[in-house]
Amino acid sequence: MAGNRANEAPQERMERQLRESAEVEERVVSIDSEEEFLTALDEAGHKLVVVEVQSERVCETGIDEPEPELHWKLDAEQEQARRMAKCAAVKHTIMRTARECPDVSFLYLETDGSSERDALVQKLGVTVLPTLQFYREGKLLWEHRGVMQMEAGVGEGVMYYGDAATATSGGEHPSSLVTEITSRAGLQQFLAAESDPKVLQVLNVALTSAGPCIKVFPAVVALSRTFKGFATFGRLMGDVNGDTRSLLQELNIIEVPTFIFFRAGKEVGRHVGSSRGDLIGQILQQQEQEGLSPPPPPVTAKVKPRSRAGMRRGRTAQQ
C-alpha cells in the first residue's frame, strides 16, 4: 500500500504523510477569482493546467438520468452521502495525481456562494458539479462534466495532454513510447524508421478535444510497452496545424480515433473506434495474418515456495 512502507516506524510514517500532504497542498492551488485564475494560466506558460470545480454540497453525475424517488428523509440522506463520497474519491485522485505529475499545474475552485467565485464559475461555463477542465496557454482543451468516470478522466487527461508519466506508462513519458507526429515530414520519418515487415507500425489518428481519442490513449500507451520490439506506435493530432489537417484529408480520415496499420511503410489495414478490447484484437489479428506470435507476457517475480514447516505453522495458527 502507498500509505505504508516496509521497516517504517509509526512516527516516521506520520512525518512522511504530513510532508506529502503539505506537498499536495502546494501543488493544488485554490483560486477565488477570475484574476487569480488568469494569473495562474499565465504563470503556467506551456504547461498543462487542470482546473477542478467542485462543491462541498453538490455532486452530480453529469448524465441525463431521472432522480431516484426518495420517500423518506433517511433515503435522501443516504443518497446524498453516497454521491458526496464519489466526489471525495475524485478529490483524492486529483491530489495523488498532482503529487505524481510535477509537470502539470493543478487549480481548485470551490463553489461556496461567494460572488467572485460564482462569477468565475459562470465565466468558465461550468453548469455541472464537479467539472474538470484542461487548459494550455490559456486555451480550453477539454472538459469532463460530472462525477461519472471522472477518476479515470483525471489520468486520461494528464496522459493525453500533459505527457505525464503514470503507472500505465510504466513511469515513462508517453512521448517516449508513442511518437508524436505534427507534420508531414514527421509522418514520413515515422514510417521510414522501420523497414522490417515483421514489425507492425500503428498510427493513431486523433483530434485534440475528441473524448473517444482521450479515452483510448492509455491503451495505446500500454500496448506500446507490451509490443515493444514487435510494433511501433505514433500519434497524429489532426487539428494542430495546416499540415496535419491536410494529412487528415489525404489519409481519408472520416472518424476518430482511426488506427492505420503499416508494415515497412505500406498500409496493410485500418481500425476505427475507441474500444480498447477491439484495438487489441485488431493488432493481434494483424500479427496472426503474418504468422507472428503475440509478444510474451511480462516477466514477474517468482514466488518462493513455502516450506513444509511453514505450512504446518500456518495451519496451526488457523486452528
How would you characterize the overall build of this protein?
The protein is of the alpha/beta class. The chain folds into two domains: 133 residues, 3-Layer(aba) Sandwich (Glutaredoxin), CATH 3.40.30; 116 residues, 3-Layer(aba) Sandwich (Glutaredoxin). Helices cover 43% and strands 20% of the residues. It has ten helices and ten strands. The strands form two sheets. Strands 1-3-2-4-5 form a five-stranded mixed sheet, sandwiched between helices. Strand 9 and strand 10 form a beta hairpin. The C terminus is likely disordered. This is Thioredoxin domain-containing protein. InterPro entries: CDSP32, Thioredoxin-like_sf. GO terms for molecular function: oxidoreductase activity, acting on a sulfur group of donors, disulfide as acceptor.
- CATH class wording of the largest domain: Alpha Beta
CATH architecture of the largest domain: 3-Layer(aba) Sandwich
* Helix coverage percent: 40-55%
Radius of gyration: 24 Å
Low-confidence stretches: 300-319
Instruction: Tell me the fraction of residues in β-strands, as a range.
Output: 15-25%
Euclidean distance between termini CA atoms: 29 Å
For the largest beta sheet, what order do the strands appear in spatially? 1-3-2-4-5
| Helix/strand order, N-terminal first | HEHEHEHEEHEHEHEHEEHH
User: For the residues shown, what is the average pLDDT?
Assistant: 86
How many individual β-strands? 10
User: Considering the protein shown, what is the CATH homologous superfamily of the largest domain?
Assistant: Glutaredoxin
Shape: globular
What is the count of helical runs? 10
- Overall number of structural domains: 2
